[in-house]
C-alpha cells in the first residue's frame, strides 16, 4: 500500500512539474512579435536626422532601436504609435542594459523637411529621433527592414496620403534586425502596436538574447 502511495505521489509530482514547466514556457513566449532565429543584417544606409546630422549604421551600435515608417501629415497611425512608444519609453530602457532609441523614418520627403521633422518629433519626446532621405534611399532601406510604403495619391495635392506599414522593427545592439512587432488590427480602429504587449515582448527578447 505504501509503495502504491509513493508511486501516486511520484506521478503527481511529475504532472505538477510538467504543468509548471509548460506554464513557464508559455510565459516566455512573445505575443505580438516575430522574432528572427538568426538576426538579419541591415545593409549600409545613410539618412539625415531631425537635427541635420547623418544617421548611418554606426548609430545603431550599442543600442536597441525601434524603427517604423511614417510621416508628419499622417492622420492616425503615426501619432498613435508615437504616443504608445512614449508611454512605455522609460520602461523599455529599464528592461535592457543597453539604451533604447525610437526612430521614425519619414516616408514623405517632399513635405517632411528637417525643420518640420524636428518640431514634430520633439512634440512627442525630445529623445526620439526622426529621419529622412529621398525615395532612392528610402525604398531599399524599407525593403531591407521588411517594411513597406507607397504613395498612390496625386502628390500635387496639398493633403495627399502615404500608405505605410504600422509594424515596428527591432534592431539589436549589434546593428542587426532582431524582431518585428506586428500591429493589432481591429475593425473600426487604427492599426497600432499595443504598447504594453510590446514592452512585455521586448523584455522577453532581451532576456532570451542576453
Short characterization:
By secondary structure, this protein is of the alpha+beta class. 39% of the residues lie in helices and 23% in strands.
Q: How does this model look, in words?
A:
The chain has 210 residues and is α+β, with helices and mostly antiparallel strands. The chain has one domain: Glutaredoxin, CATH 3.40.30.10. The protein is built from five helices and ten strands. The protein has helices at 2-27, 77-94, 114-124, 135-145, 195-209, and strands at 33-41, 46-49, 54-56, 64-70, 100-106, 129-132, 149-150, 163-164, 168-171, 176-181. The strands form two sheets. It has an eight-stranded mixed β-sheet, with helices on both faces. Strand 9 (168-171) and strand 10 form a beta hairpin. Helix 2 (77-94) packs across helix 5. Mean pLDDT is 88; it is low at 14-27.
Please give the domain count.
1
Strand order in the sheet with the most strands: 1-10-9-4-5-6-2-3
Task: Let me know the number of strands.
Answer: 10
Overall radius of gyration: 21 Å
CATH class: Alpha Beta
* Estimated structural class: alpha+beta
Q: What share of residues are in beta strands?
A: 15-25%
Amino acid at each position: 500500500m505504501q509503495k502504491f502511495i509513493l508511486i501516486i505521489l511520484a506521478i503527481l509530482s511529475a504532472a505538477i512539474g510538467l504543468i509548471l514547466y509548460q506554464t513557464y514556457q508559455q510565459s516566455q513566449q512573445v505575443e505580438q512579435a516575430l522574432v528572427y532565429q538568426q538576426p538579419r543584417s541591415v545593409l549600409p544606409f545613410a539618412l539625415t536626422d531631425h537635427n541635420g546630422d547623418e544617421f548611418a549604421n554606426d548609430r545603431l551600435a550599442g543600442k536597441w532601436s525601434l524603427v517604423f515608417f511614417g510621416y508628419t501629415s499622417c492622420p492616425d497611425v503615426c501619432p498613435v504609435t508615437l504616443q504608445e512608444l512614449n508611454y512605455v519609453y522609460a520602461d523599455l530602457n529599464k528592461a535592457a542594459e543597453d539604451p533604447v532609441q525610437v526612430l521614425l523614418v519619414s516616408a514623405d520627403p517632399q513635405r517632411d523637411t528637417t525643420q518640420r521633422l524636428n518640431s514634430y518629433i520633439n512634440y512627442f519626446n525630445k529623445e526620439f529621433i526622426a529621419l529622412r532621405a529621398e525615395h532612392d534611399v528610402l525604398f531599399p532601406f524599407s525593403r531591407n527592414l521588411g517594411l513597406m510604403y507607397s504613395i498612390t495619391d496625386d502628390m500635387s495635392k496639398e493633403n495627399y496620403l502615404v500608405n505605410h506599414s504600422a509594424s515596428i522593427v527591432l534592431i539589436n545592439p549589434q546593428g542587426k534586425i532582431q524582431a518585428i512587432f506586428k500591429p493589432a488590427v481591429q475593425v473600426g480602429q487604427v492599426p497600432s502596436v499595443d504598447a504594453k504587449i510590446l514592452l512585455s515582448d521586448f523584455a522577453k527578447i532581451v532576456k532570451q538574447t542576453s
